[in-house]
Amino acid sequence: MPKITYISHTGTTRTIDVPVGDTVMEGAVQNGVDGIVAECGGNCQCATCHVYVEEKFLPLLDPIGEDQDAMLDTTASPRKSNSRLSCQIHVKAELDGLVVHTPPTQQ
Amino acid sequence: MGVVIIGGGQAGFQTAASLRLEGFEERITLIGDEPHVPYQRPPLSKGFLLGKQEQRHAELRPAAFYETQRITLVTARVAAIDRTSRRVKLDSGEHIEYDTLVLATGARNRMLPYEGVCYLRTLGEATEIRQRLAAAQDVVVIGGGFIGLEVAAAARTLSKQVTVIEGQPRLMARVVAPVVSEYFRGQHENKGVDVLLNATLYGIREREVLLRERTSRPADLVIAGIGVEPNVELARDAGLPVGNGITVDEYLRTPDERIFAIGDCAECPNPFAQMCVRLESVQNAVDQATSAAKAIVGRGAPYAAVPWFWTDQYDIHLQMAGLPVGFDQIVTRGEPESRKFSVFYFRIGKLCAVDSINRPADHLAARKLIGAHTALSPDQASDESFDLKTAS
Ligand SMILES: Cc1cc2nc3c(=O)[nH]c(=O)nc-3n(C[C@H](O)[C@H](O)[C@H](O)COP(=O)(O)OP(=O)(O)OC[C@H]3O[C@@H](n4cnc5c(N)ncnc54)[C@H](O)[C@@H]3O)c2cc1C
Ligand code: FES
Predict the structure, then answer these.
(1) What tens digit of pLDDT does each residue of B364-386 get?
(2) What's this model's pTM, rounded to 2 decimal places?
(3) Which of B123, B187, B108 is nearest to B149 (CA)?
(4) Which residues of B touch A41 (CB under 8 A)?
(5) B45 touches chain A (CB under 8 A)
């Protein structure tokens, strides 16, 4: 299973095995990783699953969809070029080792 | 003692989680009568039926979360509330005492007076429908509302023959404008769904649904989505006021100041409807739970969150913001033919709701505009060169 690393804004690091097909959000929520709220349950409706993706993985991600793009404009912590909604990142083999940073606040 | 929450759905779960986020240190007991950790319902009529999502994807948090957050999950049905001794009585006869009680009992499906009909509210029911869908050929959906249409879309995607039976002259008639109803009818028909409007159900026989127009449809699976009844009985029996839901004030409090009611079971004054309404949505459940949690820790504020909702059918994503209560004018932005358009509803010249079809940016702009009571004219709304984000 691909390993995904979540680093909080205070530096707490958790590495989780996330099944292929699950989302980076689900990997966090199902394993009690703090910093991802996912209020809408992964429906791209709430922007409380915002993460900053480590730059070198950006080329491996799918392009940002229209609804993710609109939603990213409403995040509680500032949107940056590496901002993504973790419920929209589906884990695949190539993403093994992915590192995401959770923002100081989601709400 | 501490807080006791009745109902382990979206609203009950969120109350418990928000109380801890608010720094509440006392005991939290979450009593639910379903045999699962709290889960969300939207996937049940969408990805779960298609086999794309499983139970673990619907679960709001894993079991371990409740341990670390010191939230006691009790699987039981509450039989009665005793307000004098401040305790709830479980079916087993056991009692649990409370300082504060939160009613998050949700709603249950309306039923038809026929045998052999499936309904969809719970994970258990969704699991049964999913299994039966696998073996079915002819599926009849009774009710052309959100849940009926989502089920129809899933069944059609699984290549079933699908009929939708709706008594009203258009789909989702209770909540959307005719242009949106028509768009959805067209999309379902393009996919091969047989949509029967103005139809009256006459009976259900073995493998057959009879209509009053002397027609019938073969059916090896009949699923009804004909609305819900709020679970108000516990409150009513305890002497609390009940209208179209358990009646609460803008702090989500019943007249008994120790008892709150939230989510699908509660009716509450809503500034966007300018009256008391009972809503059925994830937004409403989550935001009311968050508000009630704040009120419990003494940081309450009048509930005034903008209502929003979504439904997914095939690749059509409908998002709704605000409440189209009493609207007297609508304009569209974008063309339905382009498969991306929004409908703006006005009440006495004031924007009250927006339905967006595959236009997520319009939806998010609408949440802001409606929430801030921003003045927007119908002309601005329909003019695509006018940037909604800059309106203020
Ligand atoms: C199939 C389906 C799809 C949906 N899709 C969407 C969607 O796409 N978008 C959206 O915004 N909303 C959607 N909704 C609506 C949304 O799920 C509900 O508004 C939300 O679940 C309401 O949460 P709640 O906690 O108030 O009620 P519920 O989720 O109904 O939870 C109430 C719980 O309390 C329990 N309970 C009741 N009485 C007792 C008692 N006496 N003792 C113990 N337990 C009790 C019930 O069994 C239930 O588990 C959907 C609903 C369904 C059914
Ligand atoms: S979980 Fe709500 S947008 Fe990702």
Answers:
(1) 999 999 999 999 999 999 999 99
(2) 0.96
(3) B187
(4) 40, 42-43, 58, 60, 282
(5) no
